[in-house]
Amino acid sequence: TTEENHLKTVAMASSLAGNRMLLAGSGGLARELHFLIGGNAAKTPPKLKVNKPGPALIVIGSRHPVTSTQLKRAQKELQLPVLQLRTEELDNANRKSSERTSLIKLALSFLEKGQSVAITSSFSRFMSTLEHEIAGELAEITALILAAGKAKGLFLSGGDTATAVCRALGASKIRVYGEIVPGMPAGELFLRRRKFRLVSKAGA
Prior knowledge:
alpha/beta; single chain; 7 strands
């Protein structure tokens, strides 16, 4: 495809083919898939109810340079506290436990004051043997912080990180309400007994 309309044509053709086609592709194609769920997009998209504002927990596992630059800018211009997961501590059980406890305590100290806080592994040493464990550790830390009930929203960046966090939280679904900017969806993450405002973005 070379134009936006081509993606719409692909989506419309697949809707006519029933369940005989398996679609794979870009976010642009995904935006046209409303043809597969009834032929028409909803006339009025659902709206997110406005609740009292509160601090957000920002969890970033992507090592992409774009994400690192964005995070440094938020730290500088918004005075966003950024806590770093030291990946070199994950290969030792005692150091791993100490690192987890320290990060959780620090994050909660900011959230309790109504201040958003970021936790990231983006600036730590890359260890290929621990790649999946890093995402899992970020997810476990996230679950423990959210259990304290101080964060009102969740921001996730990096596909592996987002997947690991959803699994650690036992999320049942994500309801998307729209986009903050193109390619950055916003909605709600549904857990067993509660839900969180959610914004997510790709690492790039």
